[in-house]
Amino acid sequence: MAEKMPAIVKTKPAYGAELVEVDVPKPGPGEVLIKVLATSICGTDLHIYEWNEWAQSRIKPPQIMGHEVAGEVIEVGPGVDTLEVGDYISAETHIVCGKCYACRHNRYHVCQNTKIFGVDMDGVFAEYAIVPAQNAWKNPKGMKPEYATLQEPLGNAVDTVLAGPIAGRSTLITGAGPLGLLGIAVAKASGAYPVIVSEPSEFRRELAKKVGADYVVNPFEEDPVKFVMDVTDGAGVEVFLEFSGAPKALEQGLKATTPGGRVSLLGLFPRDVTLDFNNLIIFKALEVHGITGRHLWETWYTVSSLIQSGKLNLDPVITHKYKGFDDFEEAFELMRAGKTGKVVFFPHKG
Ligand SMILES: NC(=O)C1=CN([C@@H]2O[C@H](COP(=O)(O)OP(=O)(O)OC[C@H]3O[C@@H](n4cnc5c(N)ncnc54)[C@H](O)[C@@H]3O)[C@@H](O)[C@H]2O)C=CC1
Ligand SMILES: CC(=O)[C@H](N)C(=O)O
Ligand SMILES: [Zn+2]
Ligand SMILES: [Zn+2]
């Protein structure tokens, strides 16, 4: 096996990243080495690439980027008895402590000592990568690597969409970025109708339609609240799923939700948000959920089954595929410009 490999590395505390040759790592106790078959870009990778305030406070270069992955186990570290060479895995990126109050209540998704690989340690934008065995998820052999790598972000979307009843429910999704698009796929596969998507980018509204949105609206040109009221005969939607992180979208979504309806919030807001809580939430008796990470491991079972059911329309979400990492800068710049859905790399060119 090769001793060196190309990897996308955050080499300096500045904008960008570099494709460099690094040593193929050795798995330590409790770890496995995988051959990376597919890996996809998350919005968090983009923040690390851009070196925004959050990245500056958290990332310690030099570090291999990336955390969404599908790969084959090629070496097993000491003490690992749950995996063997040849296993086809993806990975939960949150490394949880198992000891804190949240973990001891089986709320691993809110472990207070969470570490994230590709964020707090080397990641998977490389030909080979280390995965902690406790974070590995075994995939069925037949699952395409480009779908298997999407399971981690799909977990975010599943927890958002399935935080309450969805089948047959009118649904508003604000934001059709990569996660919102996955949300649309999950909502449609789960029987939501009609699914209305509010998204300012024309490119992403078109993607939303391809994934299965029943209606799309540009919130910068039309009032999405009026649009929703027209589609729902003045009732408002039963379910509002926020995937944009835009304060205005949150307010519009709350206004467009029917009294007694359900609101699930995944998007992260860039600043504190001011809202008329009395009229938009309390007097409407809305059920509001904050969504973070994925439930371990219930969400992974759901995601895997949804993919295997064949009902998730993922192909239109994957807009860009790259063999190798040579064009990684193009991929990041396209994503920054909002001209992509999910971007997938296949590190091995052969
Ligand atoms: N809670 C959690 O565990 C996680 C939350 N996130 C957050 O989820 C959100 C979605 O992630 P991505 O799809 O990667 O982000 P993204 O930034 O690519 O997508 C956001 C989309 O919202 C659209 N948008 C902007 N203003 C809008 C408005 N007023 N109304 C409707 N849409 C509007 C944008 O055009 C864009 O297409 C982000 O805020 C991200 O930080 C991401 C991962 C995990
Ligand atoms: C930090 C991340 O990007 C990760 N996908 C998560 O779910 O927390
Ligand atoms: Zn991520
Ligand atoms: Zn914990």
Descriptors:
cytoplasm, six-stranded parallel beta sheet, binds 2-amino-3-ketobutyric acid, seven-stranded mixed beta sheet, Quinone Oxidoreductase, Chain A, domain 1, binds zinc ion, binds 1,4-dihydronicotinamide adenine dinucleotide, NAD, 2 domains, 26% strand, 29% helix, amino acid binding, Rossmann fold, alpha/beta, 18 strands, metal-binding, 350 residues
How is the secondary structure organized here?
Elements: E1 4-10, E2 18-23, E3 31-40, H1 43-50, H2 53-58, E4 63-64, E5 68-76, E6 88-91, E7 94-95, H3 101-104, E8 115-116, E9 128-132, E10 136-138, H4 145-148, H5 151-161, E11 171-174, H6 178-189, E12 195-198, H7 202-211, E13 215-217, H8 224-231, E14 237-242, H9 247-256, E15 257-265, H10 277-282, E16 287-290, H11 298-309, E17 318-323, H12 328-336, E18 342-346
Parallel strand pairs: 11-12, 11-14, 12-13, 14-15, 15-16, 17-18
Antiparallel strand pairs: 1-2, 1-4, 3-5, 3-9, 3-18, 5-6, 6-10, 7-8
Helix pairs in contact: 5-6, 5-11, 6-7, 8-9
Bound molecules: 1,4-dihydronicotinamide adenine dinucleotide, 2-amino-3-ketobutyric acid and zinc ion (2 copies).
2-amino-3-ketobutyric acid binds next to helix 5.
Subcellular location: Cytoplasm
GO molecular function: amino acid binding; L-threonine 3-dehydrogenase activity; NAD+ binding; zinc ion binding
Domain Enoyl reductase (ER): 16-345
